[in-house]
Amino acid sequence: MHCKSRRFSQITGFTLIELLVAITILGIVAVLGWRGLDSIVRARQTLNGEMDQTRGIQIAFAQIENDCAHVMDANMLPGNSVLTAAGSKLMIIRSVFEDNLPIRFQVVVFNVVDGVLSRRELSPTRETAVLLAQWQSAAEDLDGTPSIPLQSKVESFSLRTWKVGETGWRMNGDNVVNAGDTATSANPVIPPNPANPANPSGASAKSATLAGVEVSMQVQGREAPMTKIFLLGAN
């Protein structure tokens, strides 16, 4: 009886060394698991950040494309610019179409300030004097119109233009038709044309001096800048 009790006591439980080995193995597994989980979380955060950044760039480019497609015909404001690309600032006079309302025009401005690309739009109008005054105040950033941020962490924002009759891109540029006299404040920018509803402005086909604008934007964290070309007056 005494011998059986001794054998039973010898084969039960774990030794201290066995426990230490088991704890060490569990610790190593836990560390490896934590590192793997941490890398997955970091990768997900990076991916989400890149997706948000890409989405912001796409929204900004889509807005620029839409504004360029509806740029005002330069012949309607002879001697004045309807599009100016200078440095990190793009100004456009675009047509505004709304149901049951005559065509109107508004100044929109894209600009990079403190690494943030933003867009602001002034009130639509049909009066030449008002439109020119808005253009001047926007050019001097005195219009006081609130801006909508489109993209942050912008390191550079450059503009090039393509002029009709030329064979290469030029840095910056503007769209001015120097022909005739400018309209007076007594008359609206665009007289109605009820005889032709498809062309309510009564204007001739677009004869923009500028044919296209190239926008190149470098965003922090990207190896190369995002570049896109926009046609003017596509709509």
From TrEMBL:
The record's subcellular locations are: Cell inner membrane
Report whether Transmembrane shows up as a keyword of the record: yes
Name the SUPFAM superfamilies for this protein: Pili subunits (SSF54523)
A Gene Ontology term for the protein's cellular component: plasma membrane
Q: Please, one GO biological process term?
A: protein secretion by the type II secretion system
> Keywords assigned by UniProt?
Cell inner membrane, Cell membrane, Membrane, Methylation, Transmembrane, Transmembrane helix
The primary location reported for this protein is membrane
Q: Which InterPro entries match?
A: N_methyl_site (IPR012902), Pilin-like (IPR045584), T2SS_protein_J (IPR051621)
Answer whether the UniProt record assigns the keyword Cell inner membrane to this protein. yes
**Region ranges (Disordered):** 186-205
User: Which PANTHER family does the UniProt entry name for this protein?
Assistant: TYPE II SECRETION SYSTEM PROTEIN J, TYPE II SECRETION SYSTEM PROTEIN J-RELATED
Q: What is this protein called?
A: Prepilin-type N-terminal cleavage/methylation domain-containing protein
**Organism whose genome encodes this protein:** Undibacterium jejuense
